[in-house]
Specification:
globular; 2 domains; Aspartate Aminotransferase, domain 1; about 40% helix; four-stranded antiparallel β-sheet; Aspartate Aminotransferase, domain 2; 14 helices; alpha/beta
């Protein structure tokens, strides 16, 4: 009996490595990376640093670890860091910057995840060692996950960087999917990274590697981050098996991101035609589609459950929004199938109401 079709749109974290990546893992030249003797890791880090126009780079086990290392390496305990109020670092990284880094978050509400210099200036406080935690770092996120992977432009990034420089602050970019931003806006990724002091991006997710993220910045920053990585148990030995697919991710997987974006737009337009579904098409800028089903009289959790039973996996968020994410392995016919299933489920709900 033929297996029922399943289209998994919960996240691009479900993306599987390519056959070439798996072969590269099998044949990778290895060494002890803690002693900086793994040639494949060194090649990946040099490639990443050059791609981002930074002095040096470091392989980390995850984006969460990469963000934490980046923040800790540019602050001291008791400092304040500025974050967008709905940022991934604040929402989904277990407060590591506070628990481990000893840092105080200062939240700024942006517009679709983007903070303006005026937004940030409004929360900056004058130095006062007897009252205020000193601010040392501004963290931005591009694309901004909770807003639907919405984008910062290079000019918006530069504006915040200029403000930071004027106040003696550093800027960290949580660029988990920064190559999606570059492809969507048709710019070089360096147009973003030249305006930040540090950057993190994931080799997994849209770039399809099975594990790992990269942080990049000055050599001094990376030396400090390497120390903290070891302290947090992130020192790896024959890590070339992780680095090998990462090299392929950077060299060969960026160009195809435009297909994910096109599929997301196709999906969004189809959903917009379903009565009871509410979606802002202007916010579908990369590979994520974020929408509401309040008009159907069901919760996002119930909606997700019904779709899952019909072979389409989606994510119901805690704010009653539904998330669908396109990625490698999702083709146009999968989008068409998803829209058929979605239309059918919506009609079943309407019929019962």
């Amino acid at each position: 009996m033929e297996r029922a079709r399943v289209v998994d749109l919960r996240s691009d974290t479900v993306t599987l490595p390519t056959p070439e990546m798996i072969e590269a893992m099998r044949t990778a030249e290895l060494g002890d990376d803690v002693s900086r003797e793994d040639p494949t890791v060194r090649r990946l880090e040099e490639l990443a640093a050059g791609t981002l126009a930074k002095e040096a780079a470091l392989l980390t086990t995850s984006g969460t670890q990469g963000n934490l290392l980046s923040v800790m390496s540019q602050t001291k305990r008791g400092d304040e860091i500025i974050l967008e109020a709905e940022s991934h670092q604040y929402y989904y990284e277990l407060g590591g910057f506070s628990v481990i880094g000893g840092l105080v978050p200062r939240l700024v509400k942006g517009h679709n995840g983007v903070m303006t210099p005026e937004d940030i200036e409004a929360v900056l406080r004058p130095p006062d060692v007897l009252r205020f935690a000193p601010t040392s770092l501004i963290c931005i996120e591009n694309p901004h996950h909770r807003s639907g992977n919405t984008l910062w432009t290079p000019s918006q990034t530069k504006a915040v960087y200029d403000l930071a420089m004027a106040h003696g602050l550093k800027v960290h970019l949580d660029g988990s999917r920064i190559f999606d931003a570059a492809v969507a806006l048709d710019v070089d990724v360096r147009d973003f990274t030249r305006y930040v002091d540090s950057v993190m991006f994931c080799l997994s997710k849209t770039l399809s590697a099975p594990i790992g993220s990269i942080i990049a910045g000055t050599r001094e920053f990376i030396d400090r981050a390497r120390m903290y990585r070891k302290m947090l148990g992130g020192g790896m030995r024959q890590a070339g098996i992780i680095a090998a697919p990462g090299i392929i991710a950077i060299e060969k997987m960026v160009g195809r991101l435009k297909d994910d974006h096109a599929n997301a737009k196709l999906l969004a337009k189809g959903l917009a035609n379903i009565q009871g579904v509410s979606i802002d098409l202007s916010l579908v800028q990369t590979n994520m589609v974020l929408y509401e089903v309040n008009g159907l009289g069901v919760t996002a959790k119930d909606w997700a459950s019904r779709l899952n039973e019909s072979g389409v996996k989606v994510l119901a968020r805690e704010d009653n929004k539904v998330v669908m994410v396109t990625h490698r392995g999702i083709e146009r016919e999968d989008i068409e199938y998803t829209l058929k299933v979605t239309e059918l489920v919506s009609k079943q709900i309407k019929k019962k109401s």
